[in-house]
TrEMBL record:
One of its GO terms (biological process) is glycolipid biosynthetic process. Its main location: membrane. CDD domains: LPLAT_LABLAT-like. This is KDO2-lipid IV(A) lauroyltransferase. It comes from Allochromatium warmingii (Chromatium warmingii). It comes from the Bacteria. GO terms for molecular function: acyltransferase activity.
Length: 323
């Protein structure tokens, strides 16, 4: 991509954010629902990938129910990105005023000087979670540089006093130092690691997913508690409920397989509370164990997507029976 094209794209995205920011949140969410409805009307890769993921993770739903969940997901998916303008550009006090309730807030409490690892999946309004945590005390968040709007993203996420640590060896050191100082560290636990080192396959809704070991290694090294958190989006733009949940037992286990399984089980706990708000279009199962079929291949229509999910699930069942 040329520098000119990149610059024009940046300018366009910034203009959209400026246009959206003054709008009331209920209107932004209505626009998100409309955009999601439009996006799911015709075959496209994200629509197919979302349906494959949902069919893999919720095999007990009928095909009609799986498609309905996919369609609802696209409305929430669109709201997630449109509401960013509101969350980033409105005053902090106004944004935090949208938090109507915090369930499980006691899990955020800890002994004086004790750090806390907070895991926030790509679920609900994850940008709000960072602002909320930073308002409670100094926080450090693991951050992956973005192709577009990187400076704006960093500035917006840090405007409440948070520190951003890059996804590098130095960034991991920053996380460790923050935990040792008794601070809160935030990590998105459901991103697929790029490198083979530091990740293994572990079940996510029963399907092998390439899963990070960073959380386990941080927890074992620093001996701090681990919790999950997400912001559930309420209907009609009425605000958000923040949910805090304890991490499943075993997330700090010396057994890496047990730890990665516990990590994914914690993400599942969050997803099951409001399934439509998870980022189902993301290729969470892009990498597959040796000998397993690829996940995201084939035609884009729903019939073939459901067939592909069935092929993958049958292969997983067969593999499990062979063990």
């Amino acid at each position: 991509m040329s520098r000119l094209t990149h610059a024009l794209t940046e300018l366009s995205l910034r203009a959209v954010l400026r246009l959206l920011a003054p709008l009331p949140l209920p209107l932004i969410h209505r626009l998100g629902s409309l955009l999601g409805w439009i996006a799911v009307r015709w075959p496209n890769r994200q629509r197919r990938n979302a349906l494959i993921n949902i069919a893999l993770c919720f095999p007990d739903l009928s095909p009609t129910e799986q498609r309905h969940l996919r369609d609802r997901t696209f409305a929430e998916f669109s709201k997630t990105y449109l509401e960013i303008a509101y969350l980033w550009r409105r005053p902090i006090e106004q944004v935090l005023g949208l938090v109507r309730e915090v369930r499980g807030a006691e899990w955020l409490d800890r002994a004086p000087g004790q750090g806390l690892i907070v895991l926030s999946p790509h679920h609900g309004a994850w940008e709000l979670v960072g602002l909320y945590l930073a308002a409670r005390g100094h926080s450090t968040f693991f951050y992956k540089p973005q192709q577009y709007l990187d400076e704006l993203i960093r500035t917006s996420r840090a405007r409440n006093g948070a520190t951003l640590a890059p996804i590098t060896a130095r960034g991991i050191r920053v996380l460790i130092e923050a935990l040792e100082r008794g601070e809160c560290v935030g990590i998105l636990p459901d991103q697929e690691p790029k490198a083979d080192k530091g990740a293994i396959f572990a079940p996510f809704f029963g399907i092998p997913a390439f899963s990070m070991l960073l959380v386990n290694r941080l927890a074992r090294r620093t001996q701090v508690p681990v919790i999950f958190i997400f912001a559930e989006r309420l209907a009609a733009g009425q605000g958000f409920i923040i949910h805090c949940l304890p991490a499943p037992e075993g997330i700090d286990s010396a057994d890496e397989q047990q730890a990665a399984t516990a990590l994914n089980r914690g993400i599942e706990q969050c997803v099951r509370l409001c399934p439509a708000q998870y980022l189902w279009p993301y290729k969470r199962f892009r990498r597959a164990p040796a000998g397993m079929p690829k996940r995201y291949v084939g035609p884009l229509d729903d019939r073939h997507a459901l067939q592909q999910a069935q092929v993958v699930r049958e292969a997983v069942i067969q593999s499990d029976s062979d063990v």
